[in-house]
Specification:
The complex is a heterodimer of chains A (409) and B (343).
Chain A (H helix, E strand, L loop, with lengths): L1 H8 L2 H30 L4 H14 L3 E4 L5 E3 L3 H26 L7 H18 L7 H30 L3 H20 L31 H4 L8 H18 L1 H11 L1 H6 L4 H24 L16 H12 L4 H24 L5 H15 L1 H9 L3 H7 L17
Antiparallel strand pairs in A: 1-2
Chain B lengths: L1 H26 L7 H22 L3 H6 L2 H32 L4 H24 L11 H5 E2 L13 H7 L3 E2 H19 L1 H11 L1 H6 L4 H27 L11 H11 L4 H20 L12 H5 L3 H19 L19
Antiparallel strand pairs in B: 1-2
Helix pairs in contact in B: 1-7, 1-8, 1-11, 1-12, 1-13, 2-4, 2-5, 2-11, 2-12, 4-5, 4-11, 8-9, 9-11, 12-13, 12-15, 13-15
The chains are: A mainly alpha (409), B mainly alpha (343).
Chain lengths: 409, 343
């Protein structure tokens, strides 16, 4: 048994999966400990509530509410599973966005900005083209494509700055995030797209359903009644597989990955590294834009337009999704679902106990924190012999970033 | 004009102190993206401290007597609490990046995600809403300095300087400026400062001369955390009426921009902070600013949207980076985990 374990741990892939699982485990543990400590020290909660809280943190997706006697009931809850798939859609895509940049040795912290630009483009196109004269599916397609395009253009800006002027992409991304937040607020401020029909909704843009544009739900609403799920999740999965094929089976993808492993060696081998950096950031931006498009094209999600003081969390949550999956596009489908499962658990926690959904954000943050030193965890798993090999290779999460410095973050 | 200067200072001082926090971390060789998160955490602890001390009724007598010295002392204590919280929180970053040689960018991002989540989780449990306020009263009535406090009567005219810098100001603003000067001197004119900076430029050389690089990096990040936590509380006190809602509106990132714009040098940072503070101030209240006192709000007449002023600091930073990236004075060794075995 012990031998099999150590031979398994010699394989890099296995160690990566194990490191991710350990991160998840510790993250959940942190969450449970906080729930427990708060429950025991807070007079309003008590040990019973703490036990409920822990069960919901770990199995919120299976929660079916409270039964007649007031205790928590668990079982298959189609609405929860459907909502999980719905919320996983943008997470998978922002995760892909961050992952593609990671593969090229870039840290795309600009996903929130790209997501916002995608949101704006999608909403404007889907609400502006009258569905009376243009078929709604065509408007949907145009809106989706314009969301991708807007995200790609916005993502290309940090890429260009990095490639041509050697400005650190993290910094450029942070700046473009806030520029995007202000720009989007500016575009919608005083615009005709603001929802003025429903009272008390002045801070929101019309749902795309207002113009009859919605993502198809063929059959999914029958399988998961009472949830928001639609075929956007299918598109996200297809895009993830497409990215897998692109990165591993095409010349272009190979060039991007080369560039990420060692930019100088790639240039020496005749790869146009500058073009690849811009391309990678544009693809990353396009994916983040697609995330926004699919989320808002569902027809029943609303956009709060006065967003200049905050950035969308789903953009940042793409980072843990990508890190946990070690930037593997197919694995991202699962880590994205895991993250949205946590999200649902948080929602259940708010509805059913005295706790609130922010505990799941704490768990996610703990997981990101652990991912930052997943190299150390992997080294521990592989035993000391691996020490040299691991320190010779590039950092696992962010290839090509281990030895940078003095770039000005 | 008085209003403009006063408001600009209120925005500029947190930026300045948090940007200096960034300098301390980065000059020791640690990339500090976590400024925003630490600010949020510091603001929360500071406000919580104020809230709890008020509940305990410690300073009620002083408030009733109008004992402004005691109340300012109260504000100082809250600031200290915020600084301590920031320092402790930043240990997460230094532990990951010094001991575990983690990727500092991701570590900082984790702290940025962690702070609002933790803070909102606790605020919801404590206050049963998404914002934690003072237990009673508001920030100006408790902590604002007025000319009557200093023995002048309500009708005295203190002249332009007096009215601008003594009347209706927060003492914490001046404490921060003083601290900024002192710490800048420490960074450039003391043995400790020189050693700290050397660890950000060439840690191998520093180590060979007997400087403990790990210790210096811990020191840099901890000072940075304390300053950022303090800055977060000052922000909450002066611009958000001493309330905490898990958000500092991107001030931490703006401070990062100020730091880069100021080329990692304190004097330049002070200038950059004033400039960016001015933009923030204009964006917040451009419709009512009357610069020369003729009753016409000139900026409103020009008709540039507030969104432009809000965006400008970020755009300027990008432009400045574009022009200076070739000869940028970023610390050479920042972001590289120090490994004794190398060279």
């Amino acid at each position: 048994m012990r031998e099999r374990w150590s031979s398994l741990m010699k394989r890099d892939g296995a160690r990566t999966v194990a490191a991710s699982l350990i991160s998840i485990g510790i993250g959940l543990l942190v969450g449970c400990v906080i729930v427990l400590v708060v429950g025991l020290t807070n007079s309003g909660l008590g040990p019973g509530a703490a036990w409920d809280g822990i069960r919901l943190v770990l199995g919120g997706i299976l929660s079916t509410g409270r039964d007649a006697s007031g205790s928590l009931a668990f079982g298959f809850n189609p609405a929860n599973v459907g909502n999980m798939l719905f919320r996983a859609t943008p997470l998978i895509l922002t995760g892909l966005s961050v992952a593609v940049a990671f593969k090229t040795g870039l840290f795309n912290i600009g996903a929130p900005g790209q997501y916002l630009m995608g949101t704006a483009a999608t909403l404007i196109v889907s609400l502006s083209i009258p569905t009376a004269s243009v078929p709604a599916p065509l408007v949907w397609l145009l809106a989706f494509l314009s969301g991708i395009l807007a995200g790609a253009l916005w993502g290309a800006i940090p890429g260009l700055l990095k490639a041509l002027l050697n400005i650190n992409e993290v910094l450029a991304c942070i700046m473009t995030n806030w520029i995007a937040a202000n720009l989007v607020t500016w575009v919608f401020d005083g615009s005709v797209w603001r929802n003025i029909e429903e009272n008390g909704k002045t801070g929101y843009i019309y749902k795309t359903a207002h113009n009859g544009v919605e993502t198809a739900r063929w059959g999914l609403d029958a399988i998961f009644p009472g949830s928001q799920v639609n075929w956007g999740i299918g598109i996200a999965v297809v895009l993830a597989v497409a990215m897998y094929i692109f990165l591993t089976k095409t010349t272009m993808g190979y060039e991007l990955v080369c560039c990420g492993s060692n930019r100088h060696a790639a240039r020496y081998a005749g790869i146009d590294d500058k073009r690849d950096i811009v391309l990678s950031m544009a693809i990353a931006g396009g994916l983040a834009g697609a995330a926004a498009s699919l989320y808002y094209l569902s027809g029943n999600t609303e956009f709060f337009w006065s967003t200049y003081q905050s950035l969308p969390a789903v953009g940042f949550n793409g980072i843990p999704v990508a890190l946990l999956a070690a930037s593997d596009p197919v694995a991202i489908i699962f880590t994205g679902c895991f993250m949205s499962m946590l999200n649902i658990a948080g929602q259940q926690l708010t509805n059913l106990t005295g706790y609130n959904e922010y505990i799941t954000d704490v768990i996610i943050a703990a997981i990101v924190y652990l991912s930052a030193f997943s190299l150390a965890i992997k080294m521990m798993l592989g035993g000391r012999k691996k020490h040299k090999a691991a320190s010779l290779g590039a950092s696992p999460a962010v290839p090509g970033k281990a030895e940078k410095g003095g770039e000005g973050v | 004009m008085t209003f403009l200067i006063r408001q600009t200072l209120i925005y500029a001082v947190p930026l300045m102190i948090v940007a200096l926090a960034g300098v301390f971390a980065e000059r020791s060789g640690i990339i500090d993206l976590a400024l925003e998160g630490i600010m949020i955490f510091g603001a929360f602890i500071g406000v919580l401290f104020v809230n709890m001390v008020q509940e305990a009724g410690v300073f009620d007598q002083a408030k009733a007597d109008g004992d402004w010295l005691a109340l300012q002392g109260f504000a100082m204590l809250a600031m200290l609490a915020a600084a301590a919280a920031g320092a402790v929180f930043s240990l997460l970053l230094s532990f990951a990046s010094v001991n575990l040689k983690a990727d500092q960018t991701i570590g900082g991002t984790a702290l940025n995600l962690m702070a609002p989540a933790l803070v909102l989780f606790f605020i919801r449990i404590i206050a049963d809403q998404n914002v934690l306020n003072m237990a009673r009263g508001d920030a100006p009535s408790w902590f604002m300095l007025r000319k009557t406090d200093l023995g002048f009567s309500r009708t005295d005219d203190l002249g332009f300087l007096g009215e601008t810098f003594i009347h209706q100001v927060y003492l914490v603003t001046y404490i921060c400026i003083l601290l900024f000067v002192v710490l800048s001197v420490v960074l450039y004119r003391t043995k400790f400062g020189l050693r700290l900076r050397s660890c950000g430029e060439n840690p191998q050389a520093a180590d060979s001369l007997g400087i403990n690089v790990y210790q210096m990096r811990y020191a840099g990040t901890t000072i940075s955390g304390a300053l950022a936590g303090m800055g977060g509380f000052v922000y909450a006190l002066t611009t958000a009426n001493c309330s905490s809602n898990g958000d500092v509106a991107g001030f931490g990132f703006l401070a990062l921009a100020v730091m880069i714009f100021g080329n990692w040098k304190p004097l330049n940072i002070a200038g950059a902070a004033l400039l960016f503070g001015l933009f923030k101030c204009i964006a917040a209240s451009y419709t009512s600013i009357d610069i020369n006192g003729d009753g016409i709000c000139m900026l409103k007449e020009i008709g540039i949207s507030a969104h432009v002023y809000r965006m400008l600091p970020y755009i300027i930073t990008l432009v400045v980076l574009a022009f200076t990236s070739k000869k940028s004075r970023a610390p050479k060794a920042e972001g590289i985990p120090y490994d004794k075995g190398q060279r």
